[in-house]
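Re-run with default settings, no changes from the original entry. Doing this only to confirm the output is reproducible before filing.
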Amino acid sequence: MELFDLRHYEKKRVLQAVLAKGTSRFNLTYDDRVLKFIRTFVEDDNKKPFINTAHLENWDLIQLPVTPRREYDNFQPGQNCQFALQPIVDVANKKVISFEALIRSPDGGSPVEYFSTLSKDALYKADLDSKRFAFALANKMGMVDQTISVNLLPMSLVTTKNAVDILLSEIKASGLVPEQVVVEVTEDEVISRFDEFDFAIKQLRSAGIGLAIDDFGAGFAGLSLLAKFQPEKVKIDRNIIYDVHKSGPKQAIVQAIITCCTLLEITVIAEGIEKLEEWLWLEAAGIRYYQGFLFARPQLNGVSPVNWPIIKDE
């Protein structure tokens, strides 16, 4: 534990002082939840919406390339799957903050197509082993300022012996560091052997790997996972996001998620955005980070250009 006497620091210097000491000892960044709590306290930030939204007819989309954007021949010995990358964007700053690596079959087919070829016994090991190819792709793309998010079935961390050690080994072999990786666990799978899952999550986070709950609101255990693990990120399920600007119940649910996660200093990401109207409502509600076809489609072994909302010239 480190003690800071706030009488010795100007308000604007407190965060930098904490970060300077935390980085040298614990590899902290400005996205760490501890620093978020301190920043909220110091800055007295009420977290207002980031953009002053206007009517739909006042908005347009401008497409800009992402560097790097080329496709790669990502096949390696033993590779039986591919990955498509989809950006997660900070619209207010026109910045890609992360890429989600979405698993595909060897010929580029859907995750369902890929996993349907596997037996139940082989499913979890294949899920875990596939991540080496996602990390290798991230390395080839030279990711520096972004993180790479990979999906894992919760039971993949339980049924595969030394699952976390395997992940860490593959991260290192790909030239990445754990702080560049976020593991997204979906809540639509029933988690048995919960104590073992809990231990694996603690191992992940102790190593520096980030944790996100994917498809939040769609499955069995979202609130339980949120209460138990308090992940760095929560991704609101696309079924809640779809036409949220038209649905009072969906709006109430989203606002409740935002309020809860704000109090817990958890980053909220809205996924599955396809319409400007959805984004406008979510932006006004206070969400900052987005993923969906409106901004960019997944690109097999590469990155698509990103569509950025802009206000039309008067």
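The chain is about 40% helix and 20% strand. The chain has a mean pLDDT of 85.
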